[in-house]
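pipeline stage [seq->struct] | target=Immunoglobulin superfamily member 6 | organism=Sus scrofa | residues=238
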Amino acid sequence: MATVNGGTITLGLEISLVLLCVGAAGGCTVLVFQPPFLEVDHTQKAVTIQCSFSTVGCPAEQPRSLWFRYGTHQPENLCLDGCRSETDKFTVGTSAQNQVSLTVNRVALNDSAIYICGIAFPSSKEPKAKQTGGGTVLVVRAMKVLSKELQSLLTAILSLLSIYIIGVLVIFVILTKSKSKTLRKKETEDSQKKKSVRRIFQEIAQELYSKRNMETCQQPEKDNTYENRRAVSNYERP
């Protein structure tokens, strides 16, 4: 943490020194804006960092743009001589009015750093005529970074897939409950049918049993009558 703070202080001093060398104080105010974060794939050939600025009460002249880089080792002053050749590692350009850019060519993993844009009016005597932006954190990834359009497409696909899975699960639960109710109803009907058949057999068996008991009870009575008549016949015979 102490090393980082020391490096930041050193960077601030070097930036102030460069701005002072560019020109003395005069009468205008400069505000500098740049993106706070930028992420690219290491296979990308080049990456451009945009820097826009606004001026109030400044001379009607083209300001000078300066770029600084704060990496893992030490602060660096970039493109003090313009860096306009495409064969250079860095290229400074003007994309529009009040807008400059820094292009990092032949992107490598060690290009990850904080890139700071500075705007200065050398002829102005005002201290605010020389200002820097908040810095852009450039991160060079070893893996390929998906574009925003592709990320949005993947997000939409995942959302639709989630909705589809939820719908399938809901339908499955409904079908399972319906099938379970049908099976219980069928089991209830089968049970009632079995009970009805069992009751019929029981009634038939009970009726047969009753008839058999009646026949059993009548048979001894007939035999006694026959024996009694035979005894009377024998008694009446002389």
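stage status: PASS
auto-comment: Residues 9 and 15 are 10 Å apart (CA to CA). Helices lie at 2-22, 148-236.
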